[in-house]
Design a protein that fits this description.
transferase activity; FAD:protein FMN transferase; ApbE; globular; alpha+beta; T-fold; metal ion binding; 9-stranded mixed sheet; TAT_signal
Amino acid sequence: MSLTRRRFLTISAAFAAGPARALAPARWRGMALGAEAEITLHGPGAEEALEAALAKIRACEARFSLYDPASELSRLNRTGKLDASLPFRVLMQLADRVHEASGGAFDPSVQPLWRALASGGDVAAARARIGWEKIVRDGNRIALGPGQALTFNGIAQGVATDAVAELLAARGFGQALINIGEFRALGGPWRLGLSDPEHGPLGTRTLDTGAVATSSPAALRLGQETHILDPRGAGGVLWSTVSVEAESAALADALSTAGCMMDADALHRAATALGGVRRITLVTHEGDLRSLSV
């Protein structure tokens, strides 16, 4: 398995009881969160669990997808206001925490800048619209500032990964590796490889439980810019790859995104403040590895 951001997402799980592996697996292949995806489940109740896992993924898409014009996020971006569901507000609260801990390096309001760079628009005007603090929240209601738009591409895949992992655990699937853009493990051990788009394979790690999320800015470029943008307009990306191991995939996802723009000391402070982070692996632009224990 690779820790680079892949466009093919996989979920493989087996029921905790050993004999269940002999049963025919339940399989599905299609699109999820804008990428090709595959789910394979082994054991009693696999068909029902497969349907429930797909429902979890579709629910995340209906809330957080930029690809679905009817999603909550798309409606918020289109109209500038939203009566948000509880899961949407919970994601916003986690974004609050990571935004504060990262000194603003994590900021979903970077979407106008992403669009301007992708389409050749007015970059200066787009950058002026960035600002998590400009968003107004009153109970269920969310209102964006003028010209603002959000992207949850640096956190929503982690949310979906956690949702499926928790579903499978509740249904007795004791051995599972869920990859919905980020990895989350049940049981194990699972052996994962760390790879960088510039420097190739750089080693392996073993994951028994918990999650790993990896961000590699150079995996996709918008002209001269990487696809991970510094919302503060500061020094840009500092690392070739940032991989975060944490208790939840959502937290690992958000911090690995922010970490690309943070020096090692700031990243360690953020991880300590957030809690639930176990280890961070940094790949320099020269291909050297640095590990931070939290």
